[in-house]
Amino acid sequence: MGVFVENSIRCIMAKKLDGLHPSLIVAFNLTLEIFNEVPLPAELQGETSLLIDVAVLGGCLCITVNYETTKIDVWVMKEYGYRDSWCKLFTLVKSCFTSHLRYSNPIGYSSDGSKVLFEGIEVLLDVHYKKLFWYDLKSERILKIIANILSTCPSNIFVEEAVFSGTS
Fold it and tell me: From the centroid of its chain, how far is CA 111?
């Protein structure tokens, strides 16, 4: 699933379907109607065994890098289009969970900016459970699991924007 940031829809694609080539972020600019590649953080260049997903966090392009069994890194691109503007915000350690966290994506910040709301898919006895949980940026801990739902539908936050043109 793609995300909308800076007038473009972005999604993760594989360079080749053989599993030996790294993923990349592709953007489609809705105004110019062109595709371009968004550079990954330099630290991730050439990596082939990572599971990468895109999100929007605080209005910025965000990626989650899933290292399967150990951790999930959360990166944010502070200035769109510049590889050097990628900043690793934090690492979510999977040992905080009682079972295998297969997927996790940030949804948004708390009103004071001290926590991040996550959606995660945890597998327990071959059943997929959606979890919504708060991650505290200062203590680097999961504070509260809000929901434990038997579901596979993604959670998103939509920001309403109005565009006015002409004179009144």
Answer: 19
